[in-house]
Specification:
The protein has a two-stranded antiparallel ribbon. The protein is 51% helix and 2% strand. The longest helix is centred in the first third of the chain and has 18 residues, at 75-92. The chain has helices at residues 16-25, 27-36, 75-92, 95-111, 136-149, 157-174, 196-207, 210-225, 237-254, 257-274, 295-309, and strands spanning 8-9, 53-54, 275-276, 279-280. It has 323 residues and is mainly α. The protein has eleven helices and four strands.
Length: 323
């Protein structure tokens, strides 16, 4: 019913279709959301940013120098800002959004330095740097977002940058070793189980590169094989929802009954664990609703599964981003 303990804005990733639907309902609200993302930018020259922003207070210009000590510029958040700014430009023609896109791309390209992977989890300008290591999920997310959004910027130099940089990042991932076929099925992450598990199939749908189809299969296989859920891992609604989506991705790619059977198995487990008095809980025993538990992800997955098992003449899109 209200924001939680802090009035923090944190943009989660949504497909372009969602923003189009929202725009048809209330275009002014969507464009104001796109413009308001500048409140995440802590340096208007370098575009160092924080994935968290004050939801009720506009940052002053010029920005206070102290803001540079509180940056959390996660690359996956950058991909979300770029997505909305490209969308806003496609609707308004306002070149301010192109300028913002270019500055944020400059920031991401600057971050690709030796020893920090092809795209770091955090920029080295963050006040909370992580150990040097590549983040393939973030690299994929940024790359596929740029490729998807490039048509929104057709005819602009910024659109060309989206296309080229996105393809470059996807090629970097495809040059790595495929995920091991012996990977364990892991469900506990910061927010249940993140949508990174479903990025691989989506990149294959967008690019047609067979590397990502094989990677998606290898990641999905340990989850398909499970006959019982591990008792030592927390199972939020999102964990079930993302896994069902993962199984349905593979069913659509391979048209094999084993994937659909696995999706139905996870759906039964989810309903048994979380359905309570006419609503889905976020976790067993939880008495309140919290969007980070991913109940919406689970409900979407069940609708998508129903359409697949009943062979309905309706397209339920995959939930790529897990929220």
């Amino acid at each position: 019913d209200a924001p939680g303990g802090r009035d923090v804005h944190h943009l989660l990733c949504s497909p372009l279709e969602f923003w189009q639907w929202a725009y048809e309902l209330n275009p002014d609200a969507v464009i104001r959301q796109c413009s308001g993302l500048i409140n995440h930018i802590h340096d208007l020259e370098t575009f160092v940013f924080n994935r968290h922003a004050d939801i009720s207070r506009v940052l002053p210009e010029p920005r206070p120098e102290a803001l540079l000590r509180s940056t959390l510029d996660f690359a996956n958040s950058a991909s979300r800002f770029l997505r909305l700014w490209a969308f806003a430009y496609s609707k308004t023609g306002d070149e301010t959004y192109l300028e913002w896109c270019d500055k944020l791309l400059d920031h991401l390209e600057w971050s690709r330095i030796d020893g920090d992977g092809p795209l770091p989890v955090l920029s080295n300008r963050s006040y909370r740097p992580l150990p040097d290591r590549p983040s393939w999920s973030n690299t994929m997310l940024v790359g596929v977002s740029l490729i998807e959004c490039a048509p929104l910027l057709a005819g602009t130099a910024t659109g060309d940058r989206f296309r080229t940089f996105g393809a470059d990042l996807i090629e970097l991932v495809a040059a790595q070793e495929l995920p091991s076929e012996d990977r364990p099925a892991v469900f506990h992450t910061g927010r249940g189980m993140g949508g990174g598990k479903t990025h691989w199939a989506h990149v294959y749908r967008v690019t047609g590169n067979p590397y990502f189809r094989e990677a998606a299969r290898r990641i999905a296989e340990p989850y398909r094989r499970l006959e019982t859920l591990p008792k030592d891992q927390p199972m939020r609604a999102q964990s079930y929802g993302v896994t069902i989506n993962l199984m349905l991705d593979m069913h659509e790619l391979e048209d094999h009954a084993m994937w659909l059977e696995a999706a139905e198995r996870y759906a039964r487990w989810a309903i048994e664990a979380l359905w309570h008095d006419g609503l889905f809980r976020g976790m067993p025993g939880l008495w309140y609703q919290d969007s980070h538990m991913g109940t919406a992800t689970l409900v979407h997955a069940l609708v998508r599964l129903h359409a697949a098992t009943e062979k309905l003449d309706i397209a339920v899109p995959p939930n790529v981003y897990g929220f």
